[in-house]
């Protein structure tokens, strides 16, 4: 072979190796050293993650992937666990058809069409055992390119109608690949580990079974979905299972019921029934946020719930978002027994899924000057989105929600400072709730409105603002996310870390030049000409519903005193102390403390246990001695023992502690 036919492979340290075509990353790892050959599990070739044994085809930049590259390693392992799961199920339950099996944030799942019956939780131990046999067999996972028609024919011959349907819808001429594990195979883009034996058989667990419609459409066949969690080693799995156990204890739906905060029911799918105690938390958060935005120069507005469909067409949401909107005919419905409820020629309106177009309409009222900017419009805006029933999840994913929403209309020269000021505001608020966070920049998606120049400017402005705020550092997990922006704007995202290490994407700010153009927003510049403002979409809580759900789980129901629905309960030991308890409660309430009384004829240990389960932060126990001496026995939630203090001292202390962080 001529020297000119050799491939030039550039390694991360800048060194170049010349290799023959057909050389694999595994070959290069072996040439570097036996330790790397053993550790390497995959490769990045020109940035693309690939199998360690896939031949190199051209001059490339190569980075070998080991288990130390945890994100890539977990993605590979979870993908492999999904394939091993599918192989195990088909071995144990002949006639079962396979469909799809992706990796997830903490594991994997696979959807099956069983021949006889849906799978149940009782099937999982046997499937796990079969998976461990496949892993122990150390079967090579071999990539094979197949002709599209040949693959469709093979699927049909094997009775795999779901796979055949999917393959038939892929474009003609597209390279289709399968991965083989012995005689078993699945259609897959890859990549995979070199063999099943590279998986740790003690690092996975099947967790549950549920129903799922083929391709997510309820008109299609119902499948059995088996979920699992997969990791690189037994220690990681154990840590994850511990987190799951703790998360179960903190589940906001469970605690919400125990603490009498809210409930949900099918008469209003995806909408929350707030109980008095839960709504007290909401009101405290709303008051806190109002103080913050008032101090930051925002003007609060209120906009309609229902707007004409033509407005949503103009904004672009009708075309991009209509399947998630609740639409309403703009006519009186037919009240007769016969005939359609709504005529064919009815105009359409929609419940607003977001507030931004309405805020533009407020901005457009009257002539705006460059001297008027920035204008910051804030709204606790109630919105509706038509989420599928199966996607709804407690407070975390609902159909009706209220955003702490604001839009800043500003000049080009004001953008960086406005975003920087928002970063500082968000930082203070998140720290008031005890959160740490990382910040990400979501860049332009494939389908978007606006010119490349608009997107270049918007992305750079957000970068510069984060730098001005001092947040583009490893300490704040700074990262750029290609393709994850909204269709009209890039965005900064705040990812909060809760008390047990989970992350929640909450706050955001987006730099938008598209909507002001589409909705004809303008101001008069210093030159006397009309100019487009830039519109910054921003939120900190995201939605009150979801943020409260996160707080319930973050605090495990043990809210800081200023947020606790009941801040103190005065409980009697004997009935002789009832009058003193009533007087104590009156004094607590007069000091602004949310206090309740418990004079039931129950043993004090029963009362202590009950109020502890209800997460009451302070229990003031009183008997004859306390009544005579003007004291209380203070028991604080989560602390051992009790302190005997004067009632006045306890009231003074609780009154100070019950203030919101911004009021101390």
Description of the structure:
The chain is α+β, with helices and mostly antiparallel strands and 664 residues long. Helices cover 34% and strands 25% of the residues. It is built from 20 helices and 32 strands. The strands form 8 sheets. The chain has an 8-stranded mixed beta sheet with strand order 15-19-20-27-24-23-21-22, sandwiched between helices. The chain is globular and about 95 Å long. The model has no long low-confidence stretch (mean pLDDT 92).
Brief summary of the model shown:
One of its GO terms (molecular function) is ligase activity. This protein has 664 residues and is α+β, with helices and mostly antiparallel strands. Helices cover 34% and strands 25% of the residues.
Give the overall average pLDDT. Answer: 92
Kindly report how far apart the N and C termini lie.
78 Å
Structural class: alpha+beta
Major pleated sheet: 8 strands, mixed
| H/I helix tally | 20
Got a strand count? 32
C-alpha Rg, in Å? 30 Å
Write out the strand line-up for the largest beta sheet, numbering strands in chain order. 15-19-20-27-24-23-21-22
Helix percent reads 25-40%
């Amino acid at each position: 072979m001529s020297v000119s036919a050799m491939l030039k492979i550039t390694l991360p340290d800048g060194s170049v190796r010349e290799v023959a075509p057909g050389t694999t990353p595994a070959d290069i790892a072996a040439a570097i050293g036996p330790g790397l050959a053993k550790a390497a599990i995959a490769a990045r070739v020109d940035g693309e993650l690939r199998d360690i044994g896939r031949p190199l085809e051209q001059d490339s930049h190569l980075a070998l992937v080991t288990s130390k590259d945890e994100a890539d390693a977990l993605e590979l392992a979870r993908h492999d666990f999904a394939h091993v799961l599918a192989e195990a199920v088909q071995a144990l339950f002949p006639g079962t058809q396979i469909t799809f099996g992706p990796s997830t944030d903490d594991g994997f799942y696979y959807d099956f069409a069983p021949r006889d019956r849906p799978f149940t939780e009782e099937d999982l131990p046997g499937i796990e055992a079969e998976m461990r046999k496949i892993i122990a067999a150390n079967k090579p996972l071999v990539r094979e390119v197949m002709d599209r028609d040949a693959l469709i024919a093979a699927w049909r011959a094997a009775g795999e109608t779901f796979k055949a349907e999917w393959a038939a819808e892929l474009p003609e001429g597209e390279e289709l690949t399968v991965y083989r594990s012995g005689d078993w195979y699945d259609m897959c883009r890859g990549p995979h580990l070199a063999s099943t034996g590279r998986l740790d058989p003690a690092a996975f667990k099947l967790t549950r079974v549920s129903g799922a419609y083929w391709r997510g459409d309820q008109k299609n066949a119902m499948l059995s979905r088996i979920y699992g969690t997969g990791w690189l080693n037994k220690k990681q799995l154990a840590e994850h299972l511990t987190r799951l156990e703790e998360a179960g204890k903190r589940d906001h739906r469970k605690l919400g019921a125990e603490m009498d905060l809210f409930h949900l029911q099918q008469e209003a799918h995806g909408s929350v029934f707030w109980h008095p105690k839960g709504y007290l938390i909401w009101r405290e958060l709303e008051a806190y946020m109002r103080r913050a935005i008032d101090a930051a120069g925002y003007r609060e507005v209120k906009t309609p719930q229902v707007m004409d469909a033509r407005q949503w067409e103009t904004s672009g949401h009708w075309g991009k978002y209509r399947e998630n909107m609740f639409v309403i005919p703009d006519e009186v419905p037919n009240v007769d027994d016969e005939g359609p409820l709504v005529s064919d020629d009815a105009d359409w309106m929609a419940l607003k899924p977001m507030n931004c177009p309405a805020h533009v309409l407020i901005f457009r009222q009257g002539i705006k000057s460059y001297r008027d900017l920035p204008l910051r419009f804030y709204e606790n805006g109630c919105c509706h989105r038509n989420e599928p029933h199966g996607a709804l999840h407690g407070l975390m994913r609902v159909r009706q929600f209220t955003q702490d929403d604001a839009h800043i209309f500003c000049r080009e020269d004001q953008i960086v400072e406005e975003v920087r000021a928002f970063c500082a505001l968000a930082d203070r608020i998140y720290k008031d709730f005890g959160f740490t966070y990382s910040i990400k920049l979501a860049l332009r998606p494939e389908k978007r409105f606006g010119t490349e120049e608009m997107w270049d400017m918007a992305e750079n402005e957000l970068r510069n603002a984060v730098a001005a705020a001092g947040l583009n550092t490893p300490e704040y997990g700074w990262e750029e996310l290609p393709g994850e922006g909204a269709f009209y704007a890039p965005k900064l995202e705040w990812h909060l870390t809760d008390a047990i290490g989970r992350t929640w994407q909450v706050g955001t700010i987006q730099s938008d030049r598209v909507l002001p153009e589409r909705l004809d927003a303008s101001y008069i510049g210093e030159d006397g000409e009309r100019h487009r403002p830039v519109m910054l979409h921003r939120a900190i809580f995201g939605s009150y519903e979801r943020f409260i759900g996160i707080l319930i789980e973050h605090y495990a129901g043990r809210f800081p005193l200023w947020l606790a629905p009941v801040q103190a309960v005065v409980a009697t030991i004997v009935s002789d102390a009832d009058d003193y308890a009533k007087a104590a409660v009156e004094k607590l309430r007069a000091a602004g403390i949310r206090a309740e009384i418990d004079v039931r004829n129950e043993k004090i240990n029963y009362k202590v246990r009950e109020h502890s389960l209800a997460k009451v932060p302070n229990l003031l126990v009183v008997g004859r001695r306390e009544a005579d001496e003007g004291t209380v026995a203070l028991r604080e939630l989560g602390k051992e023992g009790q302190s005997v203090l004067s009632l006045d001292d306890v009231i003074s202390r609780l009154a100070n502690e019950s203030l919101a962080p911004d009021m101390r």
